[in-house]
TrEMBL record:
Keyword check for Cell membrane: no
Segments forming domain Lactate utilization protein B C-terminal: 398-488
Region (Disordered): 449-473
Pfam family, one: Fer4_8
This protein's name: Lactate utilization protein B
InterPro entries linked to this entry: 4Fe4S_Fe-S-bd (IPR017896), 4Fe4S_Fe_S_CS (IPR017900), FTHF_cligase-like_sf (IPR024185), Helical_ferredxn (IPR009051), LUD_dom (IPR003741), LutB/LldF (IPR004452), LutB_C (IPR024569), NagB/RpiA_transferase-like (IPR037171)
Domain LUD: from-to ranges: 73-302
Biased composition (Basic residues): 451-460
Residue ranges of every copy of the 4Fe-4S ferredoxin-type domain listed in the record: 320-389
Keywords: 4Fe-4S, Electron transport, Iron, Iron-sulfur, Metal-binding, Repeat, Transport
């Protein structure tokens, strides 16, 4: 997976910088609270929400258990409908395939070396825009928030609302300064009125929709039984990219397959309510291969692995592959609300990013090793997840991997991960606790000694200042241990 932001510090440092930004905190708080409140109301409308959630979880688990079978079924159906399927083991291979396909589609026409894009996490994950740019191909984002991010030379900070960290005034400034160098300039006298900003984006994008020969998308779902791809969105830009260009290239993670249309029905109810708090998405685009005289005449599907098979091999961690990218977990997370998405150093921020990125990329880097700790383990993410991913369970599992090291599968091979540095004191403390709990007599003697000397115990953890221990006092040792109290009052009776 190549979606690491180069030069990004590990989460604690990045978050420390982010929480000092008062404007960012204000923007995030306002946006996440607004979305989460709306989501709660939309979900409460459905009496069978819990059953839908359980069904979504079961469908995803069943699909992941037989992923090989469903992917082959999908390939067969897409091919029969006139599409071409490509398999990409990693980001590099996916980028190479897409670049080749774009060049083949536009030929020698240098003016046409451009693509219009539907918002897609998978293409961000593989760094497709940068790979195309290196080959002289311009990739234009057409989702409004992605456009803001692209024009502002910025990075997305939320799965659903990539420019959540920007307010209206900042967006107006970006449009005024940058639109002209990417195409049609913003109108003179543009204000921060949302309708005016949307109109400026609409006019700017329209000429790109009408001109581009190639569209690039991801997909929310792929239906194996018919080879149908599904994109849900709210702005209509996706519909333009999926229907106007002559060639359509879709880059989709292999976990996005669902076996049947009946299975799809569950997610078309849970996804919009969990993400945008809508009963259904304003635009649901579905296409199956190609159709003569209607829409793109050439369709390529690039199936992306990039660490997913390795994730599937982990019995605890594989549940992250159920994710339907609704972003509900981000909007309820107290850590995300304060630190924002950039602090996670990955295209997948928030609670899902904290468990997905270290699995797709491995825990070898400082950034990835820090992500499983980017959580208070409060469990709010699990409560709202429409496919019941137990994010706290996976976080604890990954913390264990970071501390203990061990063996994992990478590109089909077993590799050893070294234990993380910097946890020596914790490891020593745990070893000491294990020994004490294994030796009851020594534990009892230690407790009595601690009780007798309790008046001279320090009130804080000794050692150099630490952000956590500096603000907390150590609990007082009681005058009598529970065991001694039990012995004294009950005479050892069970
Ligand atoms: S982990 Fe669950 S709540 Fe978070 S984005 Fe994925 S599906 Fe949505």
């Amino acid at each position: 997976m190549s979606g690491t932001y180069l030069g990004m510090p590990a989460f604690p440092k990045a978050a420390e910088d982010a929480v000092r930004n008062v404007t960012l905190r204000g923007n995030l708080r306002h946006a996440t609270h607004t979305i989460r409140d709306k989501r709660a109301k939309a979900v409460a409308e459905l009496e069978d929400w819990d059953r839908l959630r359980a069904a979504g979880k079961d469908i995803k688990d069943r699909t992941l258990r037989h992923l090989d079978r469903y992917l082959l079924q999908l390939e067969e159906a897409v091919t029969a409908a006139g599409g071409t399927v490509h398999w990409a083991a990693d980001a590099e291979e996916a980028n190479r395939i897409v670049t080749y396909l774009v060049k083949a589609a536009v030929g020698s026409d240098i003016e046409q070396r451009e693509v219009v894009k539907v918002k897609s996490m998978a293409t961000q994950e593989i760094g497709l825009n940068e790979a195309l740019e290196a080959e002289g191909i311009a990739a234009y984002e057409t989702d409004l928030a992605e456009l803001i991010v692209q024009l502002g030379d910025d990075r997305p900070s939320h799965i659903l609302v990539p420019a959540i960290h920007r307010n209206r005034g900042e967006i107006r400034d970006i449009f005024e300064e940058k639109m002209g160098s990417w195409g049609r300039a913003a109108p003179a006298g543009l204000t921060d009125n949302p309708a005016e900003l949307a109109e400026a984006a609409r006019v700017h994008l329209r000429e790109k929709f009408l001109r581009a020969k190639v569209g690039v998308s991801g997909a929310n779902f792929m239906v194996a039984e018919t080879g149908t791809l599904v994109v849900v969105e709210s702005e209509g830009n996706g519909r333009m990219c999926l229907t106007l260009p002559e060639t359509l290239i879709s880059v989709v993670g292999i976990e996005k397959v669902v076996p049947t249309w009946q299975d799809l029905e569950v997610f078309l109810q849970t996804l919009p309510r969990s993400s945008t708090a809508e009963r259904m998405n304003p635009y649901t685009s579905m296409w199956t291969g190609t159709t003569d005289g209607d829409g793109p005449q050439t369709f390529h599907l690039v199936l992306l692995d990039n660490g997913r098979t390795d994730t599937l091999a982990d019995e605890v961690g594989r549940q992250a592959l159920r994710c339907i990218r609704c972003s509900a977990c981000l909007n309820v997370c107290p850590v995300y609300e304060r630190a924002g998405g950039h602090a996670y150093g990955s295209v997948y921020p928030g609670p899902i990013g904290a468990i997905l990125s270290p699995q797709l990329r491995g825990t070898g880097s400082e950034v990835d090793a820090s992500l499983p700790y980017a959580s208070s383990l409060c469990g709010a993410c699990y409560d709202v997840c429409p496919v019941a991913i137990d994010i706290p369970e996976v976080l604890v599992h990954l913390r264990e991997r970071v501390v203990e090291g061990g063996e994992v599968t990478r590109n089909g091979e077993r590799v050893t991960i070294k234990p993380a540095k910097g946890h020596a004191v914790e490891r020593a403390a745990m070893r000491a606790a294990r020994w004490a709990l294994d030796h009851p007599d020594a534990l009892r003697a230690g407790q009595r000694l601690a009780s007798r000397t309790r008046r001279i115990h320090p009130k804080r953890l000794p050692g150099p200042g630490h952000a956590w221990s500096d603000t907390r006092t150590l609990p007082e040792v009681p005058a009598e241990s529970f065991r001694d109290w039990w012995q004294r009052t009950r005479g050892g009776a069970q």
